[in-house]
């Protein structure tokens, strides 16, 4: 159920104990396509298109995270190149250098809330030295939550006994 307050739609407050105890480290994808900051922007766009991805992390030679190069971040540039004949540039000049990021120990609820609060498709997972360790997509979060919804639920013994008593009385009527 969604609530609406002064024109803003809000999701209901989630009970943290209802969410599975999963961290970014357990959910993240580690085998990522990354881009070099000096790479030509058109070559980087070709990498995105060839791999059918909407963006990729940009890291330096030490694996330090510099930002995200995405279709969104380079669309204006590519359109200007096509119509105005602008020369190409390097990836570093087109990245989002301050996207939301998370740490390896970030819990599932915090990750979900970060996605709800930020207009992004992916969250880079960084270590304490700002090195890229992995990435989590909105789909990864949905998959984790969905698998939690499929997990067997603990039932209250009293309600379980009540339910079985109802079934027993109905069975006797048949």
From TrEMBL:
Domain of life: Bacteria
Gene3D superfamilies named in the record: CBS-domain (3.10.580.10)
Keyword Nucleotidyltransferase set for record: no
UniProt keyword annotations, A-Z: CBS domain
Listed InterPro entries: CBS_dom, CBS_dom_sf, Diverse_CBS-Domain
Keyword Transferase: no
Domain CBS: 28-88, 95-153
SMART domains named in the record: CBS
Name of the featured protein: CBS domain-containing protein
